[in-house]
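Repro:
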Amino acid sequence: MTEKEAAFKKIFEANSKKIFHLCYGYTGDDDAANDLLQETFLKVWQNLDKFRNQAMISTWIYRIAVNTCLTYLRSEKRQAKDELTPQIAETKREEFSEKNEQVALLYKCISKLEESERIIITMVLDEVPYPEIADISGISEGNLRVKIHRIKQRLTELYNQYERL
């Protein structure tokens, strides 16, 4: 195994679950998310020599994944928000037992958010550090904290609306 292959394997193992989760958040579909995961890491492999350590490698990979997902959504002419709602809700409903219905509902609520809000809250749920989220999303950490607060408020509103149904 070459040095590049060993480094790539380590990078993949450290980041693949989070990137899959991110891709799933965009598509609401396991197969599409797996395809986007593979496409993301193909780009990582192809550009690994160009990575300059100016940002954390995970930040760089997130950016590649976000761009890959956005390109996919544009090329498929999908309105992710409209398609995600039934797909995520249905998929999550099947996956979670009754006691975990709240988690399924959370995913349904997340699917109703704007695209930029979905990526931010997905990273928050993945416990990505705020400075890294700010770097990936291209906004200051102060603005990020305000945005996260508003996203959480919006999720609470959405959650409460569903709870009443």
